[in-house]
Amino acid sequence: MMIAVIIAVAVMGLAILLYAGRGRTRGSGGQGLKRRFGPEYVRAVAEHDGDTKAAEQELGKRVKEHGSLTQQALSPAARERYRTRWAAVQEQFVASPRQAVTEADALLARLARDRGFPDGERFEDQIAALSVHHAHYVQGYRSMHAAAHGPSGTEDMREAMVESRSLFEALVTGDPATPPRPSAAAPDGQGKAPRPLPRRHAKGSST
After folding, report:
1. How many Cβ atoms from other residues are within 10 Å of residue 73's Cβ?
2. Are 91 and 167 contained in the same domain?
3. pLDDT confidence of residue 119
4. Which domain holds residue 118?
5. Cβ-based burial of 158 (10 A; exposed 0-12, middle 13-18, buried ≥19)
6. Which sign does the torsion angle of CA 119, 115, 130, 91 carry?
7. Is the confidence at residue 195, as pLDDT, over 80?
8. Do 46 and 134 reside in the same domain of the chain?
9. Residue ranges under compositional bias (Basic residues) (predicted)?
10. Is 161 a residue whose pLDDT tops 80?
């Protein structure tokens, strides 16, 4: 009888330890995903109506599928071509916001592809892979893609262009993506803040 009681207590104690261990593992995994994805973690939870477990399963799947992706380096000539084209698109925004946003969206898709990410023809696959490696910057690309392929006002398009600049710079420079400082614009890779995108004014406006 005594032996049976001891064995039962030991089994119960082991079960409690295993349960607690699983809880710690799940907790650390969730915290790890939260640190890694930042705003994408918050967005995923919101997309799943507050279901943290479902959001973490989705983000964990992204890491499993794209975490081992090796980003390809750009040649200096390729970096310069991309910078020149991006500057031209920004200038074009004043005269033709819609066309500028459409071209910027395509330019980012090509740049991501050249860096080794999935082809931009399947946007959801590409954005999922980008979110694993550049989580703090992908929302701007997502906003610009939506503006380029759906109804959107000029100010929304301007904001999307400005916001997507951070991902463009992270991909062009090849620097590890770090969370942007709230009080500072994303760097342009040369230690200077990017120029603000000019606003489009109505005809006859003096401002």
Report:
1. 12
2. yes
3. 86
4. 76-173
5. buried
6. negative
7. no
8. no
9. 197-207
10. yes
Asked if residue 199 belongs to a domain, the reply is no
Distances (CA, A) of 204 to 92, 96, 102, 198, 201: 20, 17, 27, 17, 8
Q: Which residue has the tokens 């049976």?
A: 4
Q: Where are the alpha helices (DSSP H) in the chain?
A: 2-37, 39-47, 52-66, 76-93, 97-114, 123-133, 138-148, 154-173
Q: What is the mean pLDDT of residues 6-11?
A: 56
Residue type, 8: A
Task: For residue 198, tell me if it sits in a domain.
Answer: no
Exposed/middle/buried for 112, CB within 10 Å: 0-12, 13-18, 19+?
buried
Judge if 82 and 165 occupy the same domain. yes
Residue 119 tokens, joined:
């082809």
Mark whether 51 and 14 lie in a shared domain: yes
Residue 206 lies in a domain: no
Q: Is residue 20 one of the residues assigned to a domain?
A: yes
Amino acid at 200: R
What does residue 177 show for φ and ψ, rounded to 5 degrees?
A: -75, 130
Q: Same structural domain for residues 57 and 85?
A: no
Q: Please state, rounded to an integer, the average pLDDT across all residues of the chain.
A: 80
